[in-house]
Amino acid sequence: MRETLHGRPRKRVNHMRQFIALMCRFSACVLTRSVLVAGLGLSMLYSASAQDITVSEQTFGCILDWPKVRNTYFKHSDPAKLKEAMRIFRDSVPDKQYPVGTILQLIPFEAMVKHPREKFPNTNGWEFFFLDVSKEGTKIKDRGEHVVNLSQRRHLFKLSSASGEV
Questions:
Q1: 90 & 109 share domain
Q2: What are the φ and ψ backbone dihedral angles of 4, each rounded to 5 degrees?
Q3: Overall pTM > 0.90
Q4: Does residue 79 contact residue 85 with C-beta atoms inside 8 Å?
Q5: Within this chain, do residues 45 and 61 fall inside the same structural domain, yes or no?
Q6: What is the domain extent for residue 43?
Q7: Fewer CB within 10 Å, N- or C-terminus of the chain?
Q8: Which residues are CB-contacts of 104 (< 8 A; sequence separation ≥ 6)?
Q9: Structurally, how many domains does the chain consist of?
Q10: Where are the beta strands (DSSP E) in the chain?
Q11: What b/e string do you get for 125-145 counting C-beta neighbours within 10 Å, with b at 16 or more?
Q12: Parts of the chain with a pLDDT under 70
C-alpha cells in the first residue's frame, strides 16, 4: 500500500501543492501588472489635468476687476496661485516659474497666459493673446506664441524674464 498523508495518497498532495503554488505566482503576476497599469493611468490623468488650462473668451473680463501690481493686472482661478504669481512679480523672484493658469495683462487688448513649458517652448509656456474689448464682451482676435504687438512684446518678455522664465 502507498504512503498516505491524512488519508490521501502523497502523489495527489504534491500535485495539489504544485497547482496552488502555480496559481499563487499567476495571481501575483496579474496583480502586479494591474497595479502598474492603474498607476500609469492615474499618473497620466493627473499630469494632464494638473497642468492643462483651457483659455476661451470667457476667461478674460474687465482687468479693472483684477488685482494689480504696479502696472500689471493678474488673474488666476486659484487664489493661492494668484497670490504666488503676484509675489513672484512684485519681488522679482529669480528662476521661479509662474503657476500654470496665471494671466497677466498690461493693457486691455493684450494678455499672456502661462501654460506648461512644453506647450509653448519658444516662450517658456506663455501664450499671447490679441483681444477685441467692447461693452458686449471680449473676443479673441489672435493667439499663440508670436501674437503680441512688437512694442509691447519687449515689456512682456521683461516680465517673464524677471522670474527667469524667458
A1: yes
A2: -125, 160
A3: no
A4: no
A5: no
A6: 4-50
A7: N
A8: 72, 73, 74, 85, 89, 98, 111, 112, 156, 159
A9: 2
A10: 4-5, 8-9, 68-69, 72-75, 103-107, 110-114, 126-134, 137-144
A11: bbbbbbbebeeeebebeeeee
A12: 1-13, 29-31, 34-52, 148-166
